[in-house]
Fold this sequence. Notes:
heterodimer, A: 784 residues, alpha+beta, seven-stranded mixed beta sheet, four-stranded mixed beta sheet, 10 helices, 28 strands, B: mainly alpha, 3 helices, 60% helix
Amino acid sequence: MPKMENKKVQAAAKKTAGQAAVELAVFGAILIFLLGTIIRSAYSNSYAQNQNFKAMRIAMLSSWRGAQAGNIARNSASVLFVEDRLSPDSSKYGDLDRIPFIAQGSGTFSYYTLYPLDPDEVSSNLPIMDVYINGQHFPFSNASYSLNQRLIYPTCSGQIQSTVAAQAQCQSDPTKTPQQCQAAAQQQCLTNQCFRNQREWVQQSGQSVRESQFEGIVPVSQTGSSADISQAEANNASAIFNALESTGVIDPSTVTGSELQVGTTLTQGTKLTGGYSGDLASPVSPTSLSNFTAWFNATYPNGDLNQVQAILSGDKRQYKIFYTMVPNGISQFVTTPPASCSGTNNALCATVAVPFVTCPAANLSVDGQSCINTNGDMQFDLYRTGDYVTVHNAFPEVSSCPSTLSMRCNIAWEWAATEGTDSTSIGLDPGNNQYPNYDINGSLKEVTIYGIDTNQDGTFVSYEDPTGGDIDLSWDANSCTPKPGLQTNAQIYTFTSTCLSNGSPCPTSGICSDGTACSPTYLNIKEGKLYNPETAQFVRSANKRDSIDLVQRQVQLSNNTYRFCSQYDNSIMPSVGATCSSGGQTATCSNGTFCTPPTCPALTTLAGKACVPGDICPGTCITTKNGGNGNGGNNGGNGNGGNNGGNGNGGNNGGNGGNGWNGWTTICNPDMPCLNPCTDGSICTPQTSNCPMTNSSGVSNMVPNADNAPNPVEVCVGGSNTTCAVSGSCPVNGAGSTCFTGDNMKKTCLDTSSSSPMLFVRSRLEDRRGRFWMTDTSGQLKVQ
Amino acid sequence: MMNLCKNNTIAQSTIEFTFAMIVIMFLVYGMVQVFRWAGMDLANRRYSQDVSLTTPPGKDPATQLNAGDDLFLPIAAVYHGRITGNTGQ
Lengths: 784, 89
C-alpha cells in the first residue's frame, strides 16, 4: 500500500508540475491583452481630449484675432474638427482602421461683444463658423445681408396651399423615391410660405390705390361728348394699366366692375371719366416699374407725371405686415388687439385686415374680402395659416390674464405686427442702435432690419437674414430647406493609381499602354518564418505601403452664397451687356463692375441736408461714433473712451473691453458705400444689383478665396456656366458634369444644381508609412 | 536516491509561487502604471490647459492659447501627386 500511495503521489505531482506557470501565462496573457486595450482606448481618449482643447483654443484665438482686426464675424467663434485618424493596431497589415474624431469648441473675446454695427458694416461682419475636415478649412457663413431689397407681392399661381404633410403623403406612394418625397415636401413648404406671404399684404379698401385713380390721368383725347375713346387710345390706356399691373402697383383683385379691367385690352367706345388731352402715339409697354417713368414721359410728353407719382408715393394700396415674436410676460404681450398699430413690438391692431383661409363671421371686413383682427385671433395664429376659425377655438378670447381657461394667457409667445412702410412704423432707430427683428416674407423667421425706404417704386429693406448663409443655424421644422450641416454618411476608399489616358490600373511595370509613366500603389508585406529552433531562424517582417485613403464626407448647405464658387451664373445674374437697375436708374452692365447708374448727382445737392444714420440722402449717410466710457475687465481690463469711437482694452482673463459708442454724429458721406467709380465732387446711388464678375475676355473671374483663406472647394458643378472656384486652372464644368464624373470624383466638389447645394468633401489622406523589423542575425544561420 | 531527487516535488509550489508572484508583481506594477497614465494623462492635460488660460501671460494671447499661427491641423488632408493623377493646384 505505501508503495502504491507513493506512486499516486508521484503521478499527481507530475500532473501539477508547472500548473502555476501555465495559469500565470494564461492569466498574464489575458491581463496584457486588457492592458493593451486600455492603452489603445486611452490613446484615443487623450487625442480626442487634446483636439477638444485645441478646438476651444483656436476658437478663442480666432475670436481675438477678429477683434484685433475690428471684425466681429467671429465674435462668438465656433470651430469644428473632423479628422479621420488611423487607430493604433497590431494587426498583420498594420494600421488600417480609421476612427473619426469630431471635436467642437467655441470661444468669445468680449472686446467687441456689444459693438453696434452700422448698416454699411453688416455685410463684412456676417457671422462665420469654421469647420476643419481633415485639415481643410471651410469658413461657412451663418447669415446674409440684403441691401435695398424690394418687397414684392408674391404670385403663387399654379400652387395650392396644403396643411397635409407632403412628405408623408408622398411616402404612401410606392413609386416615389425618398428624394422625390423630400423635394415634394420642400416645394409644399415653399408654396405654403408663398401663400402666407401673400396673405400678409394689406390692401385696405378706400386707402388702397385703385385703378380708377389712374383713369383720370390717362392722357387720352376725348372725342365726342360721351368720352368715347378710339381704339388706339384704348390700347394706350390698356398699356398703362397693364404696366401698373405687371409691376405690382395694381392688384387685379382690387378692380371692380365699374373700373377698367386691368390686363384686358380696351375696345373702342369704352367710356372713361375725367378730362383727357393729348394725341397718343403707339406705345411700347414698360417692362418694369423702374422703366415706367421714362416710358410715360416718352409716350405722353404732355401727360402729368406728377399725378402718377403722387398716387404712387401715397400708396396705401398695399403694404407688407411685418411680424415679430413677443414673449409672454412683457408689457407688449397682449391678449386683445390695440386700436391702432405702429412702432416696434406692437400687437396686430384691431383694424388690420388681411386675406384669410377661414374667418369668423364677426371679423369679416366691410368689403368681405379680408378678415380684421377685432378679437386678436391673428396674434395667436402661430403658424400664420390664416385659419382664424380654428385659432379662435384653440385660443378663446379672455378679458384679462391670468386665466386658466384660455391658452392666450398660458402660451409662451404670440405674434405682434406692424405695417412695414417706414422707420417709425417698425421702430428702426439707427441713431440709438435700434435695429428691430421682423419676419418680412412669411418664412416664420425674423431678420434684423437695418434700413427701410418707401418710394414710388415700392418698399426697399436692408436686412441681415440668419437663414441666408451657407449654414442656416436657425433651421427647424418650419424651414423649407434640407437640414444643413455635416451628414452622417461617409465613405472611405483606398485610391489606386491609374493611367490618366484611359483610366486603366497602373501596371506593375509602371508604363501605361500609351507609354506614359505611372506608379502603382502597393501594400508590400514581407515576412520570414517564425523562430525555428531547429534551424535557428528568426522572425523578420517588412511592411511598406504607398496609398491614398480617400474619405468622402457630405455637408448640406442651406444656400448658394457664391463664397466658394464663382458668381458667374446666367440663371440668376444678368449677362454682360444686359441692363440692370439700381437706385431707380437703368444702366448697361460692363465687365467686372457693379451696375453703374448713368449719372451721379452732384455733391452740392447734399449741402446742408440733414439725414438720419442709415438713411439714403440720396447717397448715403455716414455715422461717426462719439466716444464713451468703457467698462473695465474683471482682471485688469481697462476701458478707454475715445473721442471718436470707444476703445476698450480687454482684461487678460476674460475682461470686458469698454464700449464707448454712446453718441452719433451724422454727415452725408460722399464716399460710402459707393461701389461704382464716381468722380470727385459727385456721389453715387447705392447699388441694388451686380453685373456678373467677368474679366475683359468674358471669362468668369475666379473667386480667389473664401473669407481670406485658401478656398478648399476644388470644383463646382450644377449651375449653368458655373465654374471652378479655385484660382488657377480648374476646368469649366457645364451642366452635364456632376461631382461623380471624371476627374471630379476625387476632388472636393460643390454641387449647385439645387438651391440648397451639397458639398462633397474629399479628403485624400496619404499613407506612406512602413516598418521593417528583423532580429540581428549576424553570426547566426543564414536567414532565408 | 536519484529517482527520488528527480521526482521530488518538495518546495515545487514554493518555487512556482515565488516565480508567479514575481511575474504578477510586474504585471500589477504595469497595470497600475497603465491605469495611472490613462487617468493622469487626461487630468494633467486639462490642468495644464486651465493653468494656461487663467494665468496672465503678459504677452501675446496667441502664445497663451498655444494655438500657433497655423490653424491647420498637421494631417495630410489633400494629396496631390502621381497617385491621384492631379499634380496641379
